[in-house]
Write a structure and sequence with these properties.
With 381 residues, the chain is of the alpha/beta class. The chain has helices at residues 11-27, 39-43, 60-65, 67-83, 95-107, 127-134, 145-151, 162-166, 173-180, 196-216, 229-239, 255-261, 271-278, 291-301, 309-314, 329-341, 343-360, 364-380, and strands at residues 3-8, 32-37, 47-51, 88-92, 111-115, 137-140, 156-158, 187-191, 221-226, 248-252, 264-268, 283-287, 321-323.
């Protein structure tokens, strides 16, 4: 019986892995699956060796704090791989952890695939050597990535992103507003992030930016998309004392509807920017690293012109983006106001979003499963 081990690092990786398992089962109905899992993977019948929460840490200092726990998990996985080697190991995102596991697995004669290419074209380009040593194949979400990897002797396949397959694009704004109980008038969606650290760094900044918008245009209302009840409570605590009053609502676990209901979106850089692009909504993108991480990246590693996914895909300054100190309430508020007032510019942005969405929409789960089947076939030969 074919044995497949999959290690995911956070919620987005769990979603990718869940779809992948479903497609692999169609090719290999008798295969067994095990690994570090989230709810999506477990729903598809993947045996759990640990929960993705064990790896869901961000920032250098947070990683250092959790290093003993991460090392214990690494040793436990390596012990399992030695005791009962699978036919293939698939690491989903979480490259700092997964590349180490994959390198060890490869030394045991296990085929290895990394699903989601590390951003070596943007920072820490020295990881290319590690990828070459650790991976038989890389599955890439972005069309720019396979060519870069192949130049460095790494086999890679562009698979697109499952979100692009799931989201039709022209979602009905009026229907979304009705479903959320929102009134007519200009609406700005606020998406300050899905992790506590992101909310702590940008939540209040987004609220202050919203206050600035409201001071300039009292007809604007705001909806905050909270990824979970825990995040909603954190955001609601930040809203205490806000000048926004009844013009602000917090909605939990309905991010896609919140984006669809909006005229423009103020969003933290990450998967939510892809979702916003696929839903064809104008956006302003912001991100703040922890201070030590920001200093470290700026001093030693960061080598990018653009950081938001729509701009990387477009290879152009398509959406306004603000990083670190530039992500201030005045700057973000001004950018949001400009989008609310510039219908022509927003229409141009959305037209480009449609083109980019078509590039990303290519049956990602099926492509990824087919590429893995090819790796397994190569092994058999």
């Amino acid at each position: 019986m074919l044995k497949i081990v999959i290690i995911a690092g956070e919620a987005s990786g769990d979603a990718l892995a869940g779809g992948l398992i479903r497609e692999l089962r169609r090719i290999y109905p008798e295969a067994s699956f095990a690994g570090v899992t989230g709810s999506s993977m477990r729903r598809e019948g993947c045996e759990s060796w640990g929960d993705i929460e064990q790896l869901a840490v961000m920032g250098l200092l947070e990683v250092i704090r959790h290093l003993p726990r991460i090392r214990r998990l690494k040793r436990a996985i390596e012990d399992r791989l030695r005791a009962d080697p699978p036919d293939i190991l698939i690491g989903v995102d979480a490259p700092d952890f997964n590349l180490r596991i994959e390198k060890h697995a490869r030394s045991l004669g296990i085929r290895t695939v990394q699903y989601v290419c590390p951003s070596v074209w943007a920072w820490r380009s020295g990881r290319v050597k590690t990828i070459r040593e650790a991976c038989d194949h890389v599955l890439c979400l972005l069309p720019i990535e396979p060519g870069f990897l192949e130049e460095h002797g790494i086999e890679a396949t562009f698979v697109g992103h499952p979100l692009a397959d799931q989201i039709a694009g022209d979602n009905d704004k009026s229907a979304s507003r009705h479903a959320l109980g929102l009134q007519d008038g200009p609406i700005v969606a606020l998406l300050p992030g899905s992790r506590r650290a992101e909310i702590e760094r940008l939540g209040r900044v987004f609220l202050q930016a919203a206050e600035q918008v409201r001071e300039n245009d009292a007809s604007v209302s705001f909806v905050v998309a909270a990824a979970s009840p825990k995040i909603a409570r954190l955001i609601e605590a930040q809203c205490e004392g806000s000048k926004l009053g009844d013009s602000l609502r917090v909605v939990t676990s309905r991010t896609r509807e919140v984006i669809s209901a909006a005229d423009t979106v103020l969003v933290t850089s990450g998967t939510a920017t892809l979702e916003t692009m696929l839903l064809h909504r104008p956006m302003v993108v912001a991100y703040r690293f922890a201070p030590f991480t920001a200093w470290f990246l700026k001093s030693f590693m960061l080598n990018i012109e653009r950081f938001s996914l729509p701009n990387i895909l477009a290879n152009d300054d398509l959406v306004p983006e603000y990083l670190q100190g530039e992500a201030s309430a005045p700057a973000l508020g001004a950018a949001v106001l400009e989008q609310l007032r510039d219908e022509t510019g927003c229409n141009r942005m959305v037209a480009r979003f449609r083109e980019l969405a078509d590039q990303m929409r290519c049956s990602a789960d099926e492509r990824a499963a087919a590429a893995i089947a090819n790796v397994l076939t190569d092994k058999a030969e």
